[in-house]
Amino acid sequence: MIREKDISSIIGVLENYFEGLYQADSKILTKAFHPDARYVNAKDGDYMNYSMLDYFAKVDQRTPPANTGQIREDVINSIEFGGDRMAFVKATMTMMGRDYLDFLTLVYDDGRWQIMSKIFSYIPKHQPKSEEA
Length: 133
Hints:
- By secondary structure, the protein is α+β, with helices and mostly antiparallel strands.
- It has helices at 4-23, 26-29, 52-61; strands at 33-41, 48-51, 73-81, 86-95, 98-109, 112-124.
- The mean pLDDT is 92.
């Protein structure tokens, strides 16, 4: 049985995740990610697979969307549980001129929920979604 506190805890993790991206701040993101987590970009032609250390170094080099006047746009589309220690989140967000789709797996470890993997893709904003533009 999934408890309301699990949903609330996962929403808290996602708040740190979204805010860390918006602020381009790895210190905030460390509150969301398991130290052994993986970052995978599944966009065709732009594949990347990073450890958290490598990913956080890249995040810290970005210009924060918050500093450019961008409005933070993010949605938790769904949260699914696979027992008491595993969850899956589908989330969407818009930032840095792209619409992102994130699949996040979370584990309950060390007394808290943490993102174990981030697999995502994106579409540049204002790009036609088909070849017929």
